[in-house]
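Much of our argument rests on the idea that a fold can be written as discrete symbols. In the encoding step, the backbone of a single protein was reduced to a row of integers, each denoting a local shape. This step matters because it turns folding into a mapping between discrete strings. For completeness, the protein is quoted in full, as a sequence line and a line of structure tokens:
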Amino acid sequence: MPVESGSSATARQAKQKRKSHSLSIRRTNSTEQERSGLQRDMLEGQDSKLPLSLRSNLLDLFSQIEREFESLYIENLELRREIETLNDRLAVEGQTLEGADLAKGALKTKASHSTSQLSQKLKTTYKASTSKIVSSFKATTSRAVCQLVREYVGHRDGIWDLSVTRTQPVVLGTASADHTAMLWSIETGKCLLKYTGHQGSVNSIKFHPTEQMALTASGDQTAHIWRYMVQLPAPQPVADVTQQTPCEDDVDFSDKDEADGEVDGPNDCPSVRVAITTLRSHQGVVIAADWLVGGKQVVTASWDRAANLYDVETSELVHSLTGHDQELTHCCTHPTQRLVVTSSRDTTFRLWDFRDPSIHSVNVFQGHTDTVTSAVFTVGDNVVSGSDDRTVKVWDLKNMRSPIATIRTDSAVNRISVSVNQKIIALPHDNRQVRLFDMSGVRLARLPRSNRQGHRRMVCCSAWCEDNTTCNLFTCGFDRQAIGWNINIPALLQEK
């Protein structure tokens, strides 16, 4: 009598499970209309002060939730069956291993690994399904508005960084892999000036706190300080693409990249080719740079694993900040104090204190398990760090032994920003999404993204400008465009 092999038995069980699952789905679909009709009859027979249309809408919403949980329940049952099948198979393999006189450690390791994988799969399925239910429900009920206002198109390659000037006139600056930095009119989307002094990718751009000067960092191993003068054009009406859209926009996302074609840069845009100061001390790509409070010194971060502090007037190197074990990814300065935070691929970020001229202390923080892509200060006493480990952590400067809040996401996080007044964290993701959280880790919104609007490639950076009435949040990405958003912050916080 032939004996069924383990592989064929597993295949037969999988086939039966798929058949059982499909039958369950068909039964669910076949009774859906009957259930809906019965519930509506019950509604009409019940005494309620709510309008029938509103009650019907509520019934539809709860029916959707019930169906989602039913689907989740079926998936969990299948995972339980898989675990039982795995346990049976491991028992058989265990007997074989003992018969072959092999070490029991191999079986224990294999069982632990397989069980861990299934456990992770079960958790992932549960979280994904639950998140989908919550997002679906929130999309229907949310009245907070996140509006796409303007697209800034003209770069010939991805945009790494963007920033808004701190002096009048208020303009948007972008740093691109096409070796240029551009200044844009926020209201019209027109390019006002192009800086072409770098010989490599421009990786960051920051503006002087009181003067019309910009600081850019580049792959040519230098940082440049250059002056700009721009004249703002007359405002133009907002285009049709800015129709109001709920923050939670559940749509089918397309992988189609409409920006793959060659983009013509602005032809009538004036350019600046010469920097007033060139900072040369790094032996690798300069990935980021920022002004210290007062604007008399700047700090740069490089792939040579060091951050350098320079005097702006003399261009001299004041301090070389070493200690990171791998390439630096970002640097940021405190808005009111002489503090610097540097991020690195070594999974740490470091806080450098220059408040006392005689003592330059440094603190190392090890809260992430992958590259720390950015760490930024808030106006208060907090630091917010983002990482490729898909988490964002909020830290208290007075006690930074452990984070006070942790945000877990489904994609790597790039250069984050925190709004000054309301302390809302904007998270740009590798998966083209931009999400908003408060400092306690509560998700407030996801910016709308579809085939027609939003980013079509990795989102690299975000920047707030709360005082601007047209756009108060900006994002940029590798789809070669920057986007200006209008976030209804009061409505956003009211929903929370």
